[in-house]
## 1
Amino acid sequence: MDFNKIYNNTPDSIKLSFLEAITEQNQKLQAEFIAYAETKISKTDKLSYEKFTSIVNNIQADYQKQFEAVNLEDPDWDNYNPPHGGYIEEWEAYQIASEQEFEAILDEFRNDAINTIIEQCPEDLTAMLIGLYEATQDADVPDEVCSFNDVNEHLLSEHKNTLNAIIDKLKLSALTENKVATAFEMFLRYSNEEYPGNPHFVSHFEHLLISMAEKCSNANVLLDIFNKSGLEKEVLPELILVLNKLAGNKTEWLQSALQFYKNSAPVAMELLLYYFETDKAAFVTLARELFATDEHLWANFLQQYITPQLDNELFVKVFLKLFLRTHDMQYYHKIKDYLTETDFKQLLADVKWDEVLTVKILEIEERYADIKLMVEKSSNKWHFAELIEPILKIYPEFSFTQIKKMALNTVQTERGRSIYEKIVTWLTMTKQIPGFETESLMLIQQVYTHKPNLPALRGEMRDAGLV
């Protein structure tokens, strides 16, 4: 369903009736509409840089103080909420209690931040988020009980979570362009003046800037603000791509993507998708280059696009990587008809430590003689059933002999509920072997009447319906 197409072809009367219906009982939406309308109709004063920095400093001081008030040696046990009713180690309880105190502080911030979105103040929101960021980095919270590897790192990760939650709210809100432009201008100026040459600070807020930019119909305004800021485009590659795309600057978009893709996976993904639609040969060349740099990352991405027709060799490499990492047989099925004998031998060598996985591969290839040889050589009791199951009907006499030997040897030498469950599984399998129905019953009886008596084993056999 194409929303833009339907929306553009819908009469204004229907749009207005929908707006009235959804705002009638929703007070937050009413407040957001009022703020949006007022900023559109009236000429509100532009937030000054002095006011912006004042908000940053006030938030930083307030939340630094709150963070430092958390006593990790004696957290707030009165409001501690254990995550479950089971046993919790003492050190873990201290850590969870401290995390919950920090979370309560951040909940207060999130509520205030959402109000700034409703009030159409993205520039205030940006200042607040910067102030909170600085509080997480400046807070001096002693940790004598070692609840955290690094308290400030924990707070920074929580800031990231808070930022992501706010971005989700922004995506659902309406923002006026002049407010977004002011937020951009203030953020970029603050970055230049307070964090010159620090790409980590700027990149931390990149997705916030993107979420606001996507609300702006004239991206060239934001590009102009960025170009005048003095910041290098390399520090915000995803944002530059988004702005060029929104502005319809196709040539600049491609130039930016080619400039930044080696240092930004999201940019590289965008470039790959562009080539996939416009130039399959360029797509393959770039995919090969990227896959060589990080097979784990790019196998996940490329599986949706690479085919044997595009590049047989890369197709095999991608799905072979996925198979070796996940052991998911669906990946093997995709490439099995494209493997050379050399590829196949190398694959078996790579997975030889996992007998069960090896047997699954051999079963798909119907190489039952190789499975038979593995069963003969293996001493793996715990996975014996999985190793022999594929050849029960291929080599019935061999299979019955192997199971009988394994069952009788084990019942003589080992005890315990888990091993008895294995024995029962093996005995049950003998009933599937064609032509050995009588021998199966005799073996089951022999194990059941084993001396000395094994009541637990007998119980397992009865529960399984063997006797």
## 2
Amino acid sequence: MDITPDSFSNDTELDAIVEEACDLMESIYSEGDYPKLMVKRSWSEHNPIITGEIAVPSAYRWYLKRELRRLLTKKAELRIFPSRPRVQLNDPLLFESADEDEWDITQKKLFLFTPERIDISLNRLEHYTGTRPEDFQRYILFTNYDMHVEVFHNLYPDCVKPARAVQMPAYHHKLPDNKGFTLVNIGVGPSNAKTISDHVAVLRPDAMVMVGHCGGLRNHQEIGDFVLATGFMRADGILDELLPLNIPITPNHMLNVFLKEILDKNSLKYRLGTVYTTANRNWEFMMKRTVQDIHVSRSVAIDMESATVATNGYRYRVPFATLLCVSDKPLHGKPKLSGAAQSFYEKSKEMHLRIVIDALEMSKKQNPEGLPNASIRAVNEPLMGGPG
């Protein structure tokens, strides 16, 4: 299929051509080949022609439609055709082609991920979450509490649910063009946070938000106060070899603005500041060394997932934010104990989730085609990289 600027004369015809292009890519994939897309950009002096292969195009059709439409609006020429037979998921060659250490950062790419990486990630995503990749929405919330799942069910009783018991169950409030919300209960710890964000990133979501609890580290915080992260102390260690610690990781500014606006609108008490993420749930048993890092970093809260999700958001160019709620104050004689924790959970669970959903609704209205992400884009950014 060849598409030129002469192939359409109005928006209706453009939309029809984009739909046809997506249908063709899905057909090529279902028949056993990777679809290949060639983009010719007459305005580019150094990289006028860029090609790329994809897998499972049905899982992020909304994203392909948006990106193809943008390219065609700019008068690019497109060609779609079968590339090569799909590598089977049990083929030893699969992981050789999915190895991120082999990425050529000097070569302009069309897509961030290889088709082999897309295939294995989406297969694992379905395995871990119990739902199809096609069910995932553009706005993804991560939690590690069943109570947030309960609130999500109450808000969206018709949401798609896992068909079986799984490690990280996902729930999807589906809207046209995938503009709904997905909630994933990722469990506890940075390993789970890395695993889920590794795979979710393949779907190119418009936002990832960590909705978790934390230990408050400042005198004037109280149980139930919120923490809106403005930075992260990466003490989890799980991505240190993949992204150097000296690279600053900050949440999406506009997401934070929307979250702050909702917090202020509801007259809720919160702190802005650095979140310290650790891999050691029992860090209090080696408190001196941890407290020293907390003081040096000026951290206002401690948790086990936020920095991990944020770092993968940075790596994979997905806008991210973190809103935590203080469940205990370990440095001030208020550790997380079972009875008090249950009382706190009941009081905070609905408000916490509603704040994030309301903020994302604001984002959707002001940025219907995705949040600007220039702060996490590279000079060698893939052509299909989302809003700039």
## 3
Amino acid sequence: MNSGGFQTAVALFMLWAAASPVLAGSGRIVTVGSAVTEIVQALGLGDQLVAVDTSSRDLPGMEQKRDIGYVRTLGAEGVLSQSPDLVLASSEAGPPEVLQQIRAAGVEVVVLNSEHDLEQIDEKILEIARSTGRESEAAPLLGRFASDLEGLRNTVGALPSRPSVVFLHARGGNNLMAAGSGTAADAMIQASGGTNACAAFQGYKPLSAESFAAMKPDFVLVSESVLGSDDDLLKSVPGLAQTPAARNNHILRVEDAAFLGFGPRSAAAARAVATRFAGP
């Protein structure tokens, strides 16, 4: 959204907020999805958060919150045991029947769009602000995000070329997997001005030494879920040491919540990566 569009969106939002009743202006809040949790925190509602999903527990200040489980495998009993007044959930949350059980118990459930699109994050902020009665706190947050997004566009626009990128993520047991198309990492690689070297396959899969050699990535982005130092990584991932990324010291660590969460810090995280793409 450009600056003119941002100002128009905020003005329309304030008119809409003034004309409509607040869904749940206060009370006990449960969040599902790290981006949702970050927005709730940024709107000054951290003290009202009584429980979060597992992906949110790594966020600062969330370590002591009750854990209601993984975003796609929630249980109604675990959520309802926290006596929430409002559940704010990513559209990835489920199973659907669990959300329906929570609604049937009389709890307001708001499901937020979680598409892998930076251009839609401002809408997510607006809806959460509306649902929690924090309209006035939304304007500065939206302003910061709009500034970050504009900075990202400028940085990406100045790139001389789109580098080839591999994103590595750790699944159970620190098993390394590369991100293919249809993933949050793929969307963020593109938003940062890169080209996903693994776009030929869907989802996550391990890469062989031969695959790395064939792809010749200019950069390797490494999720914080991957344990160990860069030296450990070079020793443990077959073929990685022979890539242009390794030879040029282009192995970049990224924070999962910021880079993959599509929340208020995601545009800034993408710009930080784009800035490295532009460097030596």
## 4
Amino acid sequence: MLKPVRTKSYRMSRSIPDKLRAFVAARAGLCCEYCLMHQDQLIWSGQIDHIISIKHNGATSEGNLAYSCLTCNSNKGSDIATIFPPEDTLYRFYNPRTDRWDEHFYLFEGQILPKTEIGRATVKILDFNEPDRVLRRQILTSVGKYPPAK
């Protein structure tokens, strides 16, 4: 009979302490740090995103966590970058802890458009300009609710 082999696990806990969760949400002003949608304008509660995912050895720490809407967090998943053909160059995603949003994106008629390759990668994978998301931002912009005040 074979005995199970014990291996050292580098996987971190998936649970985020309530105090850390509250800190991340407050630091973001309850706005998704990717698409800038405020919690009050969302159907689902905001989530805490590991910017560098656990499977890529990202830490569960203030410097690696971002407040995210369900749509951005679901689209991003554990990805940290994407490839653009034809060169097959790998481009990382926007990092709310180290990058400035307005250096990588701009708003135009409800769309979030990229200024950089990092912005382009993030727009692509997080699907910022899916028609329903654009329409929601257009409506919120027309009544002064988007983008949120800083």
